[in-house]
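Following up on my earlier message about adenosine-5'-triphosphate. Here are the inputs again, as you asked, copied directly from the submission form:
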Amino acid sequence: MAGGTEKPEWPLQGQFRRYKVKGNPCDIRIDETGFTVSSKGDGASGVVKQEVLKASDLVGCMCMKAGPAEARTHLAFFTIFAYPLNDKGKKRRRVTFSFEVDKEDTFEKNLEIAETWRSGVYRAIRIFGTANPQTDKSKKLLMLINPNSGPGKAQQIYKKQVASVFGEAETDHEVIITERANHAREIVQSLNLAKYSGIVILSGDGLLFEVYNGLFERPDWEQAIQYPIGMIPGGSGNGLARSLGQWLNEPYLANPVLVSTLNVVYGHLSPLDLAIVQTAEGKRLLSFLSIGFGLISDIDIESERLRSIGEARFVAWSFIRVANLRKYPAKISFKRAQRKTSNQIPKVRPPLMHSQTFEEEPEVASEALPDHLPRSQSVVQEVETLYTEDGSGQECGDGGQQNHKRGVESENESNRDNHALTDDCLIPDLNEPVPEDWETIEDNFIMVHATYQSHIATDAFIAPEATPNDGIMWIMMIRGSTPKSSIAKLLLGLDGTHVNVPGIEMIPVVALRIVPASSNGYLNVDGEVIPWGPVQAHILPRRGNIMTR
Ligand SMILES: Nc1ncnc2c1ncn2[C@@H]1O[C@H](COP(=O)(O)OP(=O)(O)OP(=O)(O)O)[C@@H](O)[C@H]1O
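Thanks, got it. Here's what our run produced:
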């Protein structure tokens, strides 16, 4: 066994003293289920306290040497990092365990033992994850940060929250701060995808829309859109990150950034539904969130002027818009999905399993930790300096001077129609009549919004039954005849209960055509405006790959 006892391999068991914690040495063990530490109290009764961290809550392990204050220079140390749920399952918290390795006379030999434990921790993490494909850990991630997203805090979020978890998890990555609208799109259009294990967005949904459309515009788009994507919320519209939290039954709201960062460091890939949108000009766009017009779209677009207040902008603008309801004459056609019925209360998911910890871990403050050893691979990023793609350093804060630009009308002149799709066989061209098995509703509408994710924003739980990969677009439809009281109820709580409010129709579909009959309005795809006019979308079930736990 590691730690001075014989058998090296698996599971690892040993006895070590905890760094800077008084008391007897602890028995520790790492196996497929995770990490267990048993500590015996003083005295004859010697109550044994056991704590268990599930493998799925472990993120990494670091080996260290003694700091300058430590006289026993032959010691080595290892620290295990984990993010278990708290006892009520309402939040994830950081837990560290640091151990001294004092089995041998020399630092080098003790370090070897510490390294065995480090490998054991990563083995436990990997074994837990074998059921799902994972991102290729031998390559680095490309992280794109929009310094102007939402209230402009994305770089701060990276420095203060994301970089430390990436360091603990040895998640090698390269950061690019986007310099202007469409920068991310241009980067991914010509990116050597083989160089990276995936792309992580630290921003709002708008930057992911750019990335997906950059991938969609590549000649190899059919493979490119399957590229692993990670999403860490940093904008004012974070619908996908919130939807993933909902699906995974994570306590997302307690710490959205941590929960989403953990999705990235685990790097399991889950299939993600995407949709192809065809506009009247013959353009095709790739969408991962929603398409619609009317009330919610208007609120999303018009509240843009309040973006400095972050996600609260949607609520604030709702009050203004509901007082001045607009109605839009239009023809809505759709192919109904076979598998779901509409307007149901969502099923409650089983609670997550907890790691078994008896008390809040007395966290070892990072300054109290021994010195980190330089690692063989360059895996811990310097937090102060972010790296551009060519490797030249770029100080945080450089990239925020560009104006935030909305809309995709003019941005992609070169959007050539190279998407001769097998999937297009499903649906006719936009200027052809819809097939006979489609349904059509012609009316005045307060809104029509089709979403493939449960949330289109943190507070907008539009489609309670939607999961990221069920192959369904949920149309939420409100007709002009719906009483204002129903609309008010809806906007007071887009919390999933709205599906039972009279006048709110939820229709599961796989394809949708919108033909507006009014001269103007906002057509919204993933929070971006596209030109007002006929448009249709169809689902590409499970075509994307999103990083999840
Ligand atoms: N450096 C930059 N300066 C200005 N705009 C940028 C920059 N980088 C990216 N953008 C643009 O900002 C848009 C919105 O970004 P994002 O979605 O990340 O933030 P958001 O606050 O959530 O925005 P939204 O208003 O779309 O919800 C992106 O579509 C992108 O085109």
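One observation from looking it over: The first strand starts at residue 12 and ends at 18. Hope that helps, and feel free to reply on this thread.
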